[in-house]
């Protein structure tokens, strides 16, 4: 059931009072752990929970329609800033990483770094 119904949560990043900014880059911090622990996969690991075989993907926009953040790419994604307040729609989606899943809690820390010129 989890494979066909992957839980998704939408959220937004609001950039306020950015009159002189035309572009921002958003990237996961190096402290965010990838699913296999060596930074070579695109999903973020369950670092503080006891569930097994699951991870979380981070997307700009909707999953599969937007662009997926890659855990191992510190370059992140660039976004245009068009006015004083820019809203960037984002989402996370839980995904299976193994064929055998173990129920439990999922808890991870995913820090996003926002940079601008």
TrEMBL record:
One of its GO terms (biological process) is cell adhesion involved in single-species biofilm formation. Signal peptide: none annotated. InterPro entries: Adhesion_dom_fimbrial_sf, Adhesion_dom_sf, Bact_Fimbrial_Adh_Pro. One of its GO terms (cellular component) is pilus. It comes from the Bacteria. This is Fimbrial protein.
